[in-house]
Specification:
The complex is a heterodimer of chains A (290) and B (270).
Chain A: H1 4-35, E1 38-39, E2 47-48, H2 52-58, H3 61-92, H4 99-111, H5 114-125, H6 131-138, H7 153-178, H8 182-190, H9 195-206, H10 208-223, H11 227-232, H12 244-254, H13 258-286
Antiparallel strand pairs in A: 1-2
Helix pairs in contact in A: 3-7, 3-10, 4-7, 7-10, 10-13, 12-13
Chain B: H1 3-27, H2 32-35, H3 50-58, H4 61-92, H5 98-109, H6 113-126, H7 134-141, H8 145-156, H9 160-168, H10 173-181, H11 186-202, H12 205-210, H13 219-229, H14 234-254, H15 256-268
The chains are: A mainly alpha (290), B mainly alpha (270).
Chain lengths: 290, 270
């Protein structure tokens, strides 16, 4: 039985997080729930409006289009990122030289802030001076407007997001690959399976736990994506890259409709939670833990 | 995968990763006429080395850099100290309701900043903290879920004997924590330091929401603002953006393994 003194000391050590739970968890959740039922312009007191914010949300086309944009972004970004990260990790998992150097190269975009990335990406995707159009020109393809094109803005943003994030996901896959017992590959070699067979039947099942993790992490990342669009396009051209978090930010901090923004935050949180639960459920069906 | 193919994939990929940085480095050394020239040249002609010093002279770049350095350092120090304390309580001390606290930490991880930013803004406004650095620092002093899990994991791996020997010699809980246990988890402390520093240094959302005075801005926000100030001088903004990356790049080169370790821990926490 622990003495009272021991328990007091332990509570003292844990006290920063107790404060965190009150100020940065319980308060935001409760305040957000209350605010979402009010009209609040940050100057006068919140005014109770019942479900008004939520019914307004249902009929708000700009909100739905922002959700659609977020969905398209996720559909382009998540699979591309996952496949590329796995391929790079398989390549990096050989007995090759310069591993820290190569791995380091993939981490440079990871450690760069989105503001830096915005300027670096501009050297590639600037419609007039970027290198992407120069490369297209070599193949006789017309220059594109990239971030200034309503059709291409989200694919371009997704490509930049993959470029920035793939090194991070690659490291996660690398850890999983190194945990697959080498004997499995040796046994498959004896049985005469080719490289694709080994990849398909040993590597892919062997890293399925990490694949699941990468899918969850990158889906949640897209649902929360704010900094990239805020810095690179601010939702443009004409709303084509307005993602949901940016829309929420605009309602709250540019139009000062904090009640409405709180309702958007709740919907967003519910969607994030839903995705996490769906993926947890899927995980039980196809993840093979070694 | 055959080794030759592996090298090909990795080197091609590394080129895709790094060439854009090289292109913007060259862009930052061009004259404006050269910067906007069509067709674009890869190398600057001539090299305008003064671009990088002009940023310091024509914009309060030094102020932004000092603000970012102060905020990121205090955030990193606070997060390491508080997360180590909480992780220590969870791993090595007789904490009441330990399971409940662990579950709560897991749940907080699902609550993203973008969701909590509105109520946090209201809370910090009530505290009178708007347009100060406090909203960007104090939350890190209250421990982060990632930091707690990382530190708890590390403290769990420390053998009991050290602690027992020290306790027999009369050391109290604080002494055991600072003198015995903390030195044994240095890699985790380094990992959390570089990770917190990096995320604070690059943050966009929180400084945008909380800071307004021009002399309080952090580097990312300041550099974004230069776009309006240096119209017709985009090469200077590119130079400023790249300069804001330099400290993180140096930190990364020195401590690459801690960055990688942190990336793994952040991914594997779930």
């Amino acid at each position: 039985m622990a003495s009272l003194r021991d328990r007091l000391w332990a509570t003292l050590f844990a006290s920063p997080y107790l404060a965190h739970l009150i100020l940065l968890t319980a308060w935001p959740v409760l305040a957000l729930a209350y605010l979402s039922f009010t009209d609040y312009d940050t100057v006068s007191d919140p005014e109770w409006v019942g479900l008004d914010n939520y019914t307004r949300l249902l009929g708000d086309e700009a909100f739905w289009s922002s959700l659609g944009n977020t969905g398209v972004f996720a559909l382009l970004y998540v699979p591309a990122q996952t496949v590329l990260a796995l391929v790079l990790a398989v390549a990096l998992n050989q007995k090759i030289r310069f591993i820290p150097l190569l791995r380091g190269a993939y981490f440079v975009p990871v450690v760069s802030s989105w503001v830096v990335i915005a300027y670096v990406a501009d050297s590639v995707f600037n419609p007039r001076t970027g290198s992407a159009n120069t490369v297209l020109g070599w193949f006789g393809i017309d220059p594109q407007a990239w971030l200034n094109s309503p059709a291409l803005v989200i694919p371009t943003l997704a490509a930049v997001a993959v470029w920035k994030g793939v090194g991070y996901m690659m490291v996660l896959f690398l850890a999983a690959l190194q945990a697959i017992p080498q004997e499995r590959y040796e046994a498959a070699m004896v049985d005469g399976g080719n490289a694709w067979h080994r990849f398909r039947h040993i590597t892919v099942p062997g890293v399925s736990g990490t694949t699941f993790l990468v899918l969850v992490l990158s889906t949640i990342t897209t649902l929360q994506a704010f900094e990239q669009v805020y810095v690179m396009t601010d939702g443009g051209p004409s709303g084509a890259s307005e993602l949901t978090v940016l829309y929420m930010y605009r309602q709250g901090f540019q139009f000062f409709q904090l009640g409405y923004a709180a309702a958007i935050a709740w919907v967003l949180f519910a969607i994030i939670l839903l995705f996490t639960l769906v993926q947890l459920w899927l995980q039980r069906r196809w993840v093979h833990y070694a | 995968m055959p080794k030759r193919l592996a090298y090909l994939v990795l080197v091609a990929g590394a080129a895709v990763m790094l060439l854009p940085f090289l292109a913007s480095l060259f862009n930052s050394l061009k004259t404006y006429a050269d910067y906007i020239a069509v067709p674009p040249g890869f190398l600057p002609d001539p090299f305008e080395w003064s671009n990088w010093t002009q940023v310091w002279e024509r914009a309060p770049f030094g102020v932004y850099a000092a603000n970012s350095l102060l905020i990121a350092s205090l955030a990193a120090f606070g997060n390491v100290l508080s997360s180590a304390m909480v992780g220590h309580a969870l791993a090595r001390m007789k904490l009441p309701a330990r399971g409940a606290l662990l579950t709560a930490a897991l749940a907080t991880m699902m609550l993203p900043t973008v969701v909590t930013i509105i109520p946090s803004f209201i809370l910090f406004r009530e505290f009178g903290w708007l347009d100060t650095f406090l909203p960007l620092i104090v939350p890190f002093w209250l421990a982060t879920p990632f930091g707690i899990f990382l530190m708890r994991q590390s403290f769990l791996a420390v053998p009991k004997e050290f602690e027992e020997a020290a306790t027999i010699d009369g050391a109290g809980p604080w002494r055991v924590f600072t003198r015995i246990h903390l030195p044994l988890v240095k890699p985790a402390l380094a990992t959390l330091t570089v990770f917190t520093f990096m995320s604070s240094w690059g943050a966009v959302l929180e400084p945008t929401v909380y800071l307004t005075s021009p002399d309080k801005l952090t580097l990312p926000i300041g550099v974004m603002g230069l776009r309006g100030q240096f119209v017709g001088n985009d090469q200077l903004v590119t130079a400023a953006a790249l300069m804001s990356l330099l400290p993180i790049l140096v930190l990364f080169l020195i401590a690459q393994r801690y960055f990688v370790r942190g990336a793994m821990a952040a991914g594997l926490k779930g």
